[in-house]
Amino acid sequence: MRIRPYSSLVRPFSRTFSIMSSAAAASNSSPNDFTQPLNKTAHAFDKNDFDAILSRRFFFIPSFEIYGGVAGLYDYGPPGSALQANILDVWRKHYIIEEDMLELDTTIMTLSDVLKTSGHVDKFADWMVKDSKTGEIFRADHLVEAVIEARLKGDKEARGVTEQPAEEEGDKKKKKKKVKHVAIKLEDSVVEEYESLLAQIDNYTGPELGELMKKHKIVNPETGNDMTEPVEFNLMFESNIGPTGQVKGYLRPETAQGHFVNFARLLEFNNGRVPFASAQIGKSFRNEIAPRQGLLRVREFTMAEIEHYVDPTDKRHARFNEVKSVKLALLPKDVQQEGKTDLTSMTVGDAVGQKIIDNETLGYFLARTQLFLEKIGIDPTRLRCRQHMANEMAHYAADCWDFEIQSSFGWIECVGCADRSAYDLTVHSKKTKQPLRVQQSLPEPRVVDKLECVFEAKAFGLQFRKDAGMLKEHLSTMEKEQLQVVKDDLEKNGSAKVQGPDGKTYEVTSDLLSINPITVTEHIREFIPNVIEPSFGIGRILYSLLEHSFWAREQDKARGVLSLPSVVAPIKCLIVCLSQDPQLRVLIHDISRKLRRIGVSSRVDDSSASIGKKYARNDELGTPFGCTVDFASLKNGTITLRERDSTAQLIGPIDTVISVVDQLVKGTIDWQGATEQLDTYSGVQDVD
Amino acid sequence: MRIRPYSSLVRPFSRTFSIMSSAAAASNSSPNDFTQPLNKTAHAFDKNDFDAILSRRFFFIPSFEIYGGVAGLYDYGPPGSALQANILDVWRKHYIIEEDMLELDTTIMTLSDVLKTSGHVDKFADWMVKDSKTGEIFRADHLVEAVIEARLKGDKEARGVTEQPAEEEGDKKKKKKKVKHVAIKLEDSVVEEYESLLAQIDNYTGPELGELMKKHKIVNPETGNDMTEPVEFNLMFESNIGPTGQVKGYLRPETAQGHFVNFARLLEFNNGRVPFASAQIGKSFRNEIAPRQGLLRVREFTMAEIEHYVDPTDKRHARFNEVKSVKLALLPKDVQQEGKTDLTSMTVGDAVGQKIIDNETLGYFLARTQLFLEKIGIDPTRLRCRQHMANEMAHYAADCWDFEIQSSFGWIECVGCADRSAYDLTVHSKKTKQPLRVQQSLPEPRVVDKLECVFEAKAFGLQFRKDAGMLKEHLSTMEKEQLQVVKDDLEKNGSAKVQGPDGKTYEVTSDLLSINPITVTEHIREFIPNVIEPSFGIGRILYSLLEHSFWAREQDKARGVLSLPSVVAPIKCLIVCLSQDPQLRVLIHDISRKLRRIGVSSRVDDSSASIGKKYARNDELGTPFGCTVDFASLKNGTITLRERDSTAQLIGPIDTVISVVDQLVKGTIDWQGATEQLDTYSGVQDVD
Lengths: 688, 688
Known about the structure:
Oligomer: homodimer
Distance between the termini of chain A: 60 Å
CATH superfamily of the largest domain in chain A: Bira Bifunctional Protein, Domain 2
CATH topology of the largest domain in chain A: BirA Bifunctional Protein, domain 2
């Protein structure tokens, strides 16, 4: 049993919003292949320096900061917004344009009926507990985990065991309510019990968590007060649509349902054919109980979701060949089931060939996603594909893989790729009685053996009254295998028990219904397509990318740099002059205008700060290139061009430099290419 | 008195969400300069044909259509989403990149305190009435208007007056609850009273509307039941943040407050200098009482807002010269006050020079917005700038202009450009005690005469107790002019009445407070900047653009065309072949791949439909170009290129045609330029 079955099973993306899986947790205490240095210098990654830069340079800050802020809500400032817009622009080109996907923009405000059908109204919840006196609220599983972890830590200290740095990192990463540990030695059997408890912390129901809290005397670590019994808290923000109070709405917790309810329209737009994909970028909302991990667990976030509709009997992909040699770092489920976290580097072609990845379409999207994440600058050595274990997936799901990205918070699920089978379209179709199916002409008619229900209409109606119609339809549309069971029962026992779509059980007798084999010639094949869903948490990817891009100059730890690739860098080019001379100021605004005209986002810094200071500020913003104007510019018409990571400088005529910047930003040349068009320059030291 | 003062005064954009101003209404019965034909053919604009295309081609449809839909919520399908994305892309380049604006992405979920300060919690409301028996809900002003209009119509019919087509259009445009009219002649005095009532329908308070309903016996026209007294309904969607129920939030009704609360951070990012602008694109929400006008009045919508911060004493704009010759169709307030709607075509330079437009910065944005709307394809002859009349504006606003676009719904406000003075920053700064000000070093120190408050601290405290601190701060930060009044009163009467920030009046006596003139030398000038706000309703612009782009082929009224400019067209190029031959199919997918690689969004139609049918389908989608492959393509390596509006065709080698399409889409050549690179083709008729 799982605590939040809906979020962790039915909607794979939600998995990306739980901080880490037990498999990922295990990886912290075992060596793995991803022990690459975090930085480009000898300086260790300093989370404080990093956070300070993000705040100082206004990448993102708590929303309504001047009003004291609210947990789990963040505003993106100019560099954060531009970085996000650029990531989304790459995403749109990489998926929507390149793959001819059908883009949608559906509403955030969602009719409650839709989310009732999808299961969110009933199951999209976490368990919370309150301090019985102060009323302070905790997520039940987080509290149990934090207290037990602190006790184990205390035990280790009492035993004189030195902590592994990896475990330290595991702790830091959680950033849950910090619980202080006391050095108290525990019984060996208790240690064992605690460790087993932690390993399955995601699997307890609310009542089970309540039992654990009683058994292990878990109280509020700060006040010492008892906690209340766990109660379920639905994570959707609720509101009323219109003034009557009778139409309930929720802010969508994902964009996916907006695709599914429009399936019939999408199919028609695609001339009735599958496969095809719909895609949507937009905000979703989850009213987290107590969010405490920065951009990694937020109440409002941007998602990008693809729903790819395929024939369930043919999950090949027409363009699979183009990606089959892409290498992935795989963590398959059987490896995890052995308690290991060793990664296997393998081409997607081999992985699909060996059935490690279920089918070509899923493999295709995994490969394309690997390419996307590399393109925007995610360090491939800190990226892995973790397969969901059987107990993580919904019963109907064929296969599910998460792209997890390593940051100072550990391995975080940032993209989920799931084969969701026909689940969603089936439930919406049943609820609304709208056909959400594909009809395909068969190349040749085919003869099919079927079972046909023949009802004694009057007697059936008298027996089941208001339920008769529903039950008739249910029986008539049953799968052949199920219907065969009913038929056998009727023939053997004279009656059969049938579970209706309302969940109730009905007893049908052989005087009311007979089931007969018939032969039908079919000209058309009808099926509900399966859905393969790659789902992206943009905020998590953006945050991970910032961590991967951050390092400090060897000569000065305080000089932080964000080595963002130019395709996503918020600003592409800094324009500065060496003095405050009015003639030079005219020139830099002239260069700025020229860059704007060719669509290159630039930033003039004409403040009185020193040139070194200006470069340092823009290194912190991740600006890859810088044009510097000095008196030689007036005399010779030349400017210099600086590259952020190497601080190398080139010099050339203004228009040539502008053209080189354009080529660099478009990616048609790299820095090596730039050196072929411009001369090396060593006139100005890159220091403060 | 106005019904919804906040929305119509404080937030100019809300004006764009009321269907029409009285001035605009007047224009329907008087001739104006914009009587251009709606279409490119002799066929009159047919709203039914138009709506059918938008729905059939999945531009947009009611959200949760298969669940029955909800009024005021719409989903954009693939062409609608792509059109919106393209409009926003042009917007981002035109404003954010070109003007170096600071982009923001702030949360939709907004802390109630923020919207309390801004005035939305108290004032962002409409008046609603209920049928006393059925409970059916109406917006009070809309019901009164609809019933009185129907009576006037009945009167005209009874008098045998033929209706003006223009008035018909005015009626249709409102699309309020349709009220049937009965031919009953009214007293002349009643007609006059009704007409005067309609002219000021926007100006009544709720209680006044209640009085009018009683006086004129306005009941539910369908049931004949009495209506309840009007009650205020706040238009914001409300929700709770977190599980405690104690943190209230609203979905933002505009993006603007997200800019203002971040002003201090933005200013720092801009090195402490003004002018600069912040910009944001995002969803906003208004829980309309009874939305009934398609995309023009919706509960969830995309806005694009700019907040430009300027020195209140210097509203010049550095780039004003670049736009001063842009012509605007102006409807200034004094013309409207005379009851006229004549437009004046004038350059923005002249309008600012003659003080018709208040200042250069406002004029700059009006000109830039005119250019933006023309760039995306809005018909300039159906675009006007209407100035707000004095009674439409907030007391603090300096000037306000709306871009109104004419469609079958009449003149609709789509962009608001307001000078909001220092209002917003002032109220947030007062509430949070955070300085939202600009500090400027003065070139030379200046000596200033000020007034200083000297309190008898102990006596003052005893007198005002808990209010003493608040009152002291209030007096100490008063404007000099106000303080002078207090000083005069104290000296004349020995006491003065002071209104506190809490709205209460306090009596201060001269034994508690003396106010003395002092001389201060200032080195720094401190001010709260003024805000100029261009605010765009993207859905309204998108809808108007679709109407402006729609026409039907002369030879066949059923062949609708959307002449969207290629820069915003959802798909740039159609790729089809003349037969289902497998070799040709390979070729069209090859062309599609080449177009994708250069970033041109294309669509393959390899269905079995006729070539004419395929062209017609894509004309309805607004696809400007089409490449056609036939057997000559295999033999000679040539394909044809079709232009949507003229149906003209050219022919050339595949790669040349692809290059021409690229140039056409980028806008570096027009169709004339294409004819210079390719040969004319007349082999295939453009018919079904």
